[in-house]
Each structure stands twice: as structure tokens, then as C-alpha cells.
Amino acid sequence: MTVMDINKAAQIDLTKYGITGVTDIVRNPSYEQLFEEETREGLEGYEKGVVTELGAVAVDTGIFTGRSPKDKFIVKDATTEENMWWTNDKVKNDNKPMSQEAWNDLKTLVTGQLSNKRLFVIDGFCGTNRILAYAFVLSLK
Q1: Does domain 3-139 have CATH number 3.20.20.80?
Q2: Could you tell me the superkingdom of the organism this chain comes from (predicted)?
């Protein structure tokens, strides 16, 4: 079975994450398909991609440019309180605590933004060694 066969056969049940009413899931699109989607007629604002003089697609993300390593928040609870390396006055790091309530509010916001839409999903891996790699699902749109 090829990767394409596996992707066609695999189902993604996003309702278990609170994402509902998804109209379509485009799974592991090719670069060509993404290029066509990002530059198609009728897109406006932050959805619209612009082809650069070198042929790449640039998308205006407004004030949100990139993901900062300093934007790392972890729910501080009974499990993580003694097992995380939290920042303090003596030792500084990027592990910032957040409350369960803040996490719940954030999850509600995100699942609302992803519901009732067409989504692009890429099956990706963190790490180069397939035995040790972690799988994750990334939503592009």
C-alpha cells in the first residue's frame, strides 16, 4: 500500500476534538495544489497569496509573523506542577504556566475557528529518525 492509498483510506474524526461541520478535508496536498489554492481568484485579505518575483507565494499575516519560541504556554496542574521546568526569579526559561480555564477558552476559540470550513491537513513528523519521530497533524487553513 502506498502513502497515497493510506491517506485515502484514513479517516480523520475531528469531532473528538470539538471541530464540527467540516465541509471538506484536503489531506496531504501537493505543493502544486497548495499554490493553486493560495493564488486562486476571489481570495481577499489574509487568505490571498501573492506570487513573488522568484515564484514563491507570500501571504500577509498582519502583525502575527511566525511563531516565537517564547510563546510556549503549558497548563499548570497537578500533573505538570512538579514535572515541568517552570521559569522563576532564579532560573529563566520559556515554559510559561497557563490555567485550565485559559486553556478551555483558547480551545473553544480555536475549535470555533476551524469548524464549518474546508480544512487542509498535512501528516507530518517531528524528527528525522522515523523510529523516534513524533507524528502530528497540522491544519493550514
Answers
A1: no
A2: Bacteria
Average pLDDT over residues 55-82: 84
pTM: 0.68
Torsion sign over Cα 123, 77, 66, 43: positive
Angle at 126 between CA 32 and CA 58, to 5 degrees: 35
Tens digit of each residue's pLDDT (9 = 90 or more) over 91-114? 888 888 999 999 999 999 999 999
45: left (phi over 0), alpha (psi -120 to 50) or beta: left
Q: Where are the domains of the chain?
A: 3-139
